[in-house]
Amino acid sequence: MTNILIELSRYLIIIAIAVYTYKGFVIFRITDEKEKENILRVQNHLMFAIHFMAYLILFLSTNQIEIVFFYLLQVVFLSAVIALYRVIYPRSSKLLINHMCMLLSISFIILTRLSYTKSIKQFKIVIVSMVITMLIPYLFKKIKFLDRLGFVYAGIGIGLLGLVAVAGSISYGAKLSFSFAGVSLQPSEFIKITYVFFVAALLSKSQELKQLLIVTALAALHVLILVASKDLGGALIYFITYAFMLYVATKEYLYLTGGLLSGAIAAFIGYRLFSHVRVRVIAWKDPFSVIENEGYQLSQSLFAIGTGGWFGMGLYQGIPNTIPVVDQDFIFSAIVEELGGLFGLCVILICISCFVMFMNVAMQAKERFFRMVALGIALMYGFQVFLTIGGVTKFIPLTGVTLPLVSYGGSSVLSTLIMFAIIQGLYILKQEEDEKVEKIKADAARKTKQAAKKRKQQQESK
Amino acid sequence: MLQERQNRQLKKENNSKNRNNKELSIVAYIFVGLFVLLMGYFVYFNIVKSPSIINSSYNTRQDLFAKKVIRGKIVSSDGKILAQTVVSEDGTESREYPYDNMYAHVVGYASKGKAGLESLMNFNLLTSNAPLMERIIKEFKGVKNTGDNVVTTLDSKLQETAYKALGSNNGAVVVMEADTGRILAMVSKPDYNPNDIDTIWDSLVATDNTEDSSLLNRATQGKYPPGSTFKILTLMEYIRENPDYENYTYECSGKIVIDDSTINCYHNTVHGTEDLYQSFAKSCNSSFANIGLQLNINSLSKLCNEFLFNSALPYSMVYNKSSFTLTNKAETYDIMQTMIGQGETLVSPLHMALITQTIANNGVMMKPYLVDHTENYDGKVVKKYKDSAYDTIISEKEAAILKDFMQNVVENGTATKLSGQSYTVAGKTGSAEYGNVKGQSHAWFVGFSPVEDSKIVVSIVVEEAGAGSEYAVPIAKKIFDAYYN
């Protein structure tokens, strides 16, 4: 009986997430509000169904009663997030909330599978982060001087990154984090946000050459400190984000191509200079030739993805824990190994859907600063997803970054939730403005009508 | 008026927004494009790359399938069971090898890290292609499915003949089909009984010197000096550089002395006046040292590399690369030694078989392979492995000349034990000295039959036996006899 349930739910989970993902794209073409609302509800049901089936398997495989309680807590949490957003911010993007919850629930499932204790830790951090970030859309409406603090953001970013580079603790060969009072913080995750704000604020103010030079120098300083800390993935994300933000702000193709070209040259120099860069490239070219050392991680990841196939081995049927750092950089491999390649493709599509939503918000925003902020966040998010999934599948060399919202790690999840909340803030702002405009239009139309009536009356009276 | 201006303002804003969005759209398209590429790659990986990657013997995940599938059988091309899993009444499984030591290295073992075909075909053996409904029903019942069988290219008669012919000697035999690269037999000694692998494992790996280990498959991993069998390549190079090779003559006095360096003929035999055919047939060391000193070493080195010295062989199981390291800066003595197959050159029996096969197959090297097809448990073919050419190494004309020389070895030279049979044979013997002890040698024979339209290739090395003509040629004869009867 248990066996039938496990086998059956393996396929049902894939069908459910495929439908969920499909709906996530269909909704972009639908204008009717009622229909939209319907789709969003269906998505919620599907998410809870996947969550239920997965935890059923987790419970049946481990027979630990704690998992049932843990599951129930998660249901309460996810329902609360969906409900609270609807109540507090009725104009928020429901699709983005659904995606956020979907990715979080996938994270809970796979982390519980990998390590129960870690998943509990992560769950606590997610709750706290969610409570904090729920305030952000409100603050965004109230605080009016965010676009005037460009140099302050830059100062904070460079200062903190510098501090980590000098005094941070080393993990996996890179200086990334601070530890105090038992909590380990990874400032580069949060500096992503100040960095986007700094670039957005300064570039939306002026595009004169002098300004561009100053901003470029400050951005380059961020990137160089990250390179010095051996955080290659971070450096790359910061660099790409800047190159594209500069392009959008100035509308100059030359800056983009020149920027990317100089980035390529810098990467080549880095390859020649640093052995840890060369190692990554060697492991990427042929991980099996160096399987005992540098290629071990990637080989294990490819074995996991390949052996999982399209339908996955089923939860607890694989051995994802043989991949080093599986709960962070290699979470996608674990997902594909046990939940299947089709599930993995859906995860990529959901991330793309989020990226498209972010870009939409950027396009809709009226103020330059807001446009640039939304763009910067979209770039940060999109490129990080690309780097991590491309890395673990051997599409591109490994850079050691996490899958936002899904990977284990408090700093990462908090910083991503902040980004989602900022986008919600911008989305809500835009919705409210639209309503105002609608009102003005309606007023104007009414007035024209009245005036015409008046004229007619006057003519008639003549 | 006021309203019109307001309307115009709105319109203008919309227009400017559309214009501003051009760059944002481009950025969005670039990134969505990147994601599409990523997904395309992911699909490609799963369909095209994944099967060979998960087949890697490093992939410990394969063993997870053992929980759901009963390991399939390995059988010879004539249907003899070489390995099978027996399930006892209480459900415990054991792997059985009915022929004990005979197929030890080529079939390998399935526990203790796996080796041989058990390792290469692990994933196929643990995959069930039983009828779909049957599989689904069993899966839901929680009953194990039956894994696929691997049908090898091995011929039980030839394997048995080769195994017995090698007797108590150490060494290796490779028998291959000349025009396909199918491996018909592969024997290596010393050997072990794979049925006892778990109990004898500790003593097998305890030997400090891995060269002596019974686990080593000498047919593919053994690194032997090629001895006089290398003269095939020296000869090829000489013929290429000297189109008038038929006019070559040499006066053999049993040894050659140049710059204080001496090369002796085997047992110091004095061969007298000889042409190139006789030098090769009698395997005259002095004459070949003399030839070697005239050769362009760079181009000989190029020829050797084309024959896959110093590089990977087109073979998917464990093997060692052969090495040829002579350069044009080498000392006279080293050059002379290398030309007669001594010196630094090392080669595996499989590689010698490939070189011989190339000549037998008119210059085209075939990829050697051991698996004919896989089939599900009731005999439905799942995947057929076809023969494929690796490359054309020498021209058809050159191959014909070499065949002629090699047939002369059998008719008038060191391998006359093979002449006068119902079948024709061409080949080359070798007595490869090893280590520093003079006079002790490994016996070599490489050859093929029949000379025209060749069918079968053998490569034989008998360790520490003595002359190839006395110890390796008789083994070849037994194999050819078995093949033709």
From TrEMBL, chain A:
One Pfam family this sequence matches: FTSW_RODA_SPOVE
GO cellular component: cell division site; plasma membrane
Keywords linked to the UniProt accession: Cell cycle, Cell division, Cell shape, Coiled coil, Membrane, Transmembrane, Transmembrane helix
UniProt main location, coarse: membrane
Compartments, record wording: Membrane
Coiled-coil features, chain-numbered ranges: 430-462
One GO-annotated biological process of the protein: regulation of cell shape
Record-annotated membrane-spanning stretches: 12-30, 42-61, 67-88, 95-116, 122-140, 152-172, 178-200, 212-241, 253-274, 295-319, 339-361, 373-396, 408-429
GO MF, any single term: lipid-linked peptidoglycan transporter activity
Topological category with respect to the lipid bilayer: Multi-pass membrane protein
Cited InterPro entries: FtsW/RodA
Keyword Aminoacyl-tRNA synthetase attributed: no
Entry-linked PANTHER family: CELL CYCLE PROTEIN (PTHR30474), PEPTIDOGLYCAN GLYCOSYLTRANSFERASE RODA (PTHR30474:SF3)
Name of the protein: Cell division protein FtsW (Lipid II flippase)
Organism: Lachnotalea glycerini
UniProtKB/TrEMBL annotation, chain B:
GO MF annotation, one: transferase activity
One GO CC term, this protein: plasma membrane
Record keywords, A-Z: Membrane, Transferase, Transmembrane, Transmembrane helix
Transmembrane segments: 26-47
GO biological process, one term: cell wall organization
Penicillin binding protein A dimerisation domain boundaries: 71-150
Pfam family, one: Transpeptidase
Domain Penicillin-binding protein transpeptidase: 171-480
UniProt keyword annotation of Endoplasmic reticulum present: no
Classification via InterPro entries: Beta-lactam/transpept, Beta-lactam/transpept-like, PBP_dimer_sf, PBPA_dimer, PCN-bd_Tpept
Protein's name according to its UniProt entry: Peptidoglycan glycosyltransferase
Source organism (scientific name): Lachnotalea glycerini
